[in-house]
Amino acid sequence: MILDIVKNHGPITGEHIAERLSLSRATLRPDLAILTMSGFLDARPRVGYFYSGKDGNRLIKEEIERKCVKDYKAQPIIIKESNSVYDGICTLFLEDVGTLFVVNNSGHLAGVVSRKDLLRAALGNKNLEDIPISIIMTRMPNIVTCTLEESLLEAARKLIHNQIDSLPVVKPVSFNGKTAYEVVGRVTKTTITKGYVELGNEVTV
Ligand code: ADP
Predict the structure, then answer these.
(1) Residue 173 Cα, ligand 1 centroid: separation in angstroms?
(2) Which atom of ligand 1 lies at the shortest distance from residue 167's CA?
């Protein structure tokens, strides 16, 4: 009823909305606060309430787009290019992750190794300690990455579009006149699920 009144008579003061509903201003205060906080109404001092024109779907979309990689990213699990496939398998188990990020001697992103890459390498190969991880990794420049400032939604789109489980979060740096990438985080399907659950818990519109 409040929304209808503001839609039809806005800008309108809280006092006048209360009058139309035969309620006191104090009774109405929490309702107006909720409608303003959730974005349905805009309030301007000494003028009154306006209808924002945003519906529930639009507000949820804005809420989703506000979620940022930097607030949800996990610790990256990193292995060196010179490490073996055997080291990779041990790290995967010890760190309880599905994907490892591989760095070169300068500490910059060189590749990605997934659990299936490691399984494939383990099939039919006895001397896993002798196979460098760099032989089996997916390597730069074919790595799909995301940045700290990117939205979680954009990162989720990259996971789906490329049919992968994990993205390194990178910071571009200049190195020997070229662009290299420091690995500063990890976005996985679990990260996206966390954001999704949080959204479900917090959206009140
Ligand atoms: P799994 O192979 O265990 O199912 P993924 O679906 O994540 O895991 O990986 C599929 C393939 O894509 C693997 O060969 C892996 O090296 C590669 N890959 C994984 N993550 C990325 C990424 N961020 N960018 C490019 N390639 C990737």
Answers:
(1) 24
(2) 23
